[in-house]
């Protein structure tokens, strides 16, 4: 059961990382749009682009190696996806229990 918990936690951590990249992209974009100094604005746009690239790269990598329903669902659906995944992965326990009877 520990492996299952670790697997789920890694997915949640990756989702959190992706959200963080998106939030930083938005923050730097906002700074760039509201900055009067051209040098500061250029730096802010570069930072915004960097976080956008990190976000897109993380999403692409996560889709390739992660459990796709965890990757594509929204936050409100995550818990139900975790339960669905657990039931699927641990279904063999129910089969074993029935065979043992």
Total strand segments: 0
Class based on secondary structure composition and strand pairing:
mainly alpha
Gross geometry: rod-shaped
Query: Would you list the SSEs in sequence order as H and E?
Result: HHHHH
What is the average per-residue confidence, as pLDDT, rounded to a whole number?
A: 88
Domain module tally: 1
Which residue ranges are poorly predicted, with pLDDT under 50 across at least 5 consecutive positions?
A: none
Helix fraction bin: over 70%
Structural Rg: 20 Å
Amino-to-carboxy terminus distance: 23 Å
Number of helices: 5
- What kind of assembly state do the chains in view correspond to? single chain
Give the biggest sheet.
Answer: none
Tell me the β content. under 5%
Describe the fold and architecture.
With 101 residues, this protein is mainly alpha-helical. The protein has one domain. It contains 5 helices and no strands. The chain has helices at residues 2-34, 38-65, 68-72, 75-89, 91-100. Helix 1 (2-34) runs antiparallel to helix 2. The two termini are 23 Å apart. The model has no long low-confidence stretch (mean pLDDT 88).
Characteristic terms for this protein:
101 residues; mainly alpha; single chain
């Amino acid at each position: 059961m520990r492996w299952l918990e670790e697997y789920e936690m890694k997915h949640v951590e990756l989702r959190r990382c992706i959200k963080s990249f998106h939030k930083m992209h938005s923050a730097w974009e906002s700074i760039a749009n509201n900055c009067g100094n051209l040098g500061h604005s250029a730096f802010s746009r570069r930072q915004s682009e960097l976080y956008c690239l990190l976000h897109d790269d993380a999403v692409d990598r996560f889709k390739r190696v992660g459990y796709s329903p965890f990757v594509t669902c929204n936050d409100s659906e995550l818990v139900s996806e975790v339960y669905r995944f657990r039931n699927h992965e641990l279904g063999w326990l129910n089969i074993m229990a029935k065979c043992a009877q």
